[in-house]
Amino acid sequence: MKKNLAFGFGTAAAALVMLAGCASKPDSYYTLASPVVVAADAAPSTLGSATPLYIELAPVAVPERLARPQMVVRQPNGSVQVEVLEQHRWASSFENELRDALAGGIAGRLGALDVTKGGRQTSQPVWRVAVQLRQFDAVDGGRVDADFSWTLRRSDEARTMVCQLRLSEAVGGGMDAVAQGAQRVTAAAAAAMARSVSAAQANPAATACTL
After folding, report:
1. Whole-angstrom Cα distance, residue 148 to residue 22?
2. How far apart are the first and last CA of the chain?
3. What is the C-alpha to C-alpha distance for residues 205 and 47, in angstroms, rounded to an integer?
């Protein structure tokens, strides 16, 4: 009798474990990088020209609560609460994902070479971009609000240009929609940063952005 009871209990426990495994959802991973640069926004490529354009993005400074691979969303209606979503993650830590997306977006729009991770001789001038993300609030079924500031300097010049940009994107319900909204915000920031490089090239005396 005891053996049958033990066997029955063990079978039930195994079934519960299997059910729990089936009920758990697999993790979802997202990227901030846009699939393509819109052709209308892209500048003629300088690659292969006598004076190619180089850009280099410093590590992006982000609020400490965002420096993680998990997506972080704010509760709606002005709540002070945020939620760290273990099963919804960026493809890498958020600050690294943001840096890669911005660097690729800026270079793509300028037809430039991204030397953020190396590949440039020290004799070649490069446009250095240092970005600080002051705000990045995402609300499921609401909006993604972001506040970027950045400095821009060519390596062979003393002048520094200072820029700031606030962006907001409406998003639908679900984490896919939130990630897509964050991707659109990042693409818009990259486009603005590319414009600031073009403006700095056109006006060597400029020290502030007009976006």
Report:
1. 42
2. 81
3. 26
Q: Which domain holds residue 98?
A: 28-202
Residues 6 or more apart whose CB falls under 8 angstroms from that of 158 comprise none
| In the block, residue with structure tokens 């590949």 | 119
Residue 22 within any structural domain of the chain:
no
- How many distinct structural domains can be found in the chain? 1
Q: Is the pLDDT of residue 135 over 60?
A: yes
- The answer to the question of residue 150 being in a domain is yes
User: CB–CB of 91/29 below 8 Å?
Assistant: yes
Whether 10 maps to a domain, the answer reads: no
Q: Is the pTM of this model over 0.90?
A: no
Strand ordering across the sheet containing 127-138: 113-114, 54-57, 127-138, 143-154, 161-170
Q: How far apart are CA 19 and CA 22, in angstroms?
A: 5
Task: Determine, yes or no, domain membership for 19.
Answer: no
Instruction: Tell me the C-alpha distance between 178 and 169, whole Å.
Output: 9
